[in-house]
C-alpha cells in the first residue's frame, strides 16, 4: 500500500502552480507591449481653426511619441517627445503645435496645406511600438458662399420690410374704415334725432 502524500508536498505543488501562472500572466502582459486608441480617425475643419488630434496609449514605462505628417508634398516629422520632457518640434511647426502627455497634439490655425495623414508612433523602451493614423481635411470658406449668404440675408430683410410696410398700410386702412363707419353711424343717429324732433 502506497503512503498518502503529505500536506506540505500538496501546498508546495499549489504554490509552484500559482507562481507559474503569475509568470505566464506577466509574460503575456509584456508581449502586449503598447496599445493605442484613436477616438476620431477623420477630422473635417475650416481654415484658421484649432484642431486637437486626440489619442490615448498605454504601455510599460515611459515611451517615445512621434507624430509625422504625410501629404501630396511628402512626409514630414512634426514632433517627438517623451511624456514629462521637452518636446522636439520641427521648424515647420514651431509655435503651431502643443503636446499632451497622453500622446495627443493640438494644431493651431490650420490651413488647406495641413490636409493629409497624421501618423502617431508610440515606441516602448523595450522596442515594441504601435502606430495609428488620423486623416485631416481642411477646407476654405469660399467667398462665393459668403456672397450667397449676404444676398440671401438682404432678400430676407427686403421681404420683412415689405411685410411690415404692408401691415402698416392695412392697419391705416382699417383705422380709416372704422373712423368713416363711426362717422356715418353718428350722422344717421343725428338725422334720426332731427326727424323725431320735426315729427314732434
Automatic annotation (TrEMBL):
Domain annotation Immunoglobulin: ranges: 40-139
TM annotation in the entry: 146-170
Major localisation: membrane
Pfam family, one: Receptor_2B4
Gene3D superfamilies per the UniProt record, alphabetical: Immunoglobulins (2.60.40.10)
Localization of this protein: Cell membrane; Cell projection, Axon; Cell projection, Dendrite
Stored InterPro entries: CD2/SLAM_rcpt (IPR015631), Ig-like_dom_sf (IPR036179), Ig-like_fold (IPR013783), Ig_sub (IPR003599), NK_rcpt_2B4_Ig_dom (IPR024303)
Signal peptide: 1-28
Keyword Signal: yes
Record's function text: Cell adhesion-like membrane protein of the central nervous system (CNS) which modulates both the position and complexity of central neurons by altering their membrane morphology and dynamics. Involved in the formation of neuronal dendrites and protrusions including dendritic filopodia. In synaptogenesis, regulates synapse formation by altering dendritic spine morphology and actin distribution. Promotes formation of unstable neuronal spines such as thin and branched types. Regulates neuronal morphogenesis and migration during cortical development in the brain.
PANTHER family, A to Z: SIGNALING LYMPHOCYTIC ACTIVATION MOLECULE, V-SET AND TRANSMEMBRANE DOMAIN-CONTAINING PROTEIN 5
Subunit (UniProt): Can homooligomerize through cis interactions within the same cell membrane.
Protein's recorded name: V-set and transmembrane domain-containing protein 5
Top-level taxonomy: Eukaryota, Metazoa, Chordata, Craniata, Vertebrata
Gene name of the encoded protein: VSTM5
